[in-house]
Amino acid sequence: MLWRRRKSQAIAVGERFRRGKPSGPSQLAEVLAVEPDGAGIPHVHYRLRSVWREGDIATDIRTLAVSAFAQRYPERVQA
Question: What is the CA radius of gyration of the chain?
Answer without folding.
Answer: 13
